Amino acid sequence: MAIAPITGKLRKRFWLDVGTALALGISGGYAYWYGYHLKALARQENFYIKLEKERARNVE
């Protein structure tokens, strides 16, 4: 008794894996960018603005 070959299964699974990887990668990228990076950048900018104001106040 022969077992029928399973065709197309690998191709379907491949595209599911590629789609899932892209979706998770893009979601992770957005989470990092908007959840951490921009907040850290704002903190850094605020620090340098504060430092520049203190230097300007000390010069006068």
TrEMBL record:
Its main location: mitochondrion. It comes from the Eukaryota. GO terms for biological process: mitochondrial electron transport, cytochrome c to oxygen. Keywords: Membrane, Mitochondrion, Mitochondrion inner membrane, Transmembrane, Transmembrane helix. The chain crosses the membrane at residues 14-33. One of its GO terms (molecular function) is cytochrome-c oxidase activity. It is found in: Mitochondrion inner membrane. One of its GO terms (cellular component) is mitochondrial inner membrane. This is Cytochrome c oxidase polypeptide VIIA. It comes from Hypholoma sublateritium (strain FD-334 SS-4).
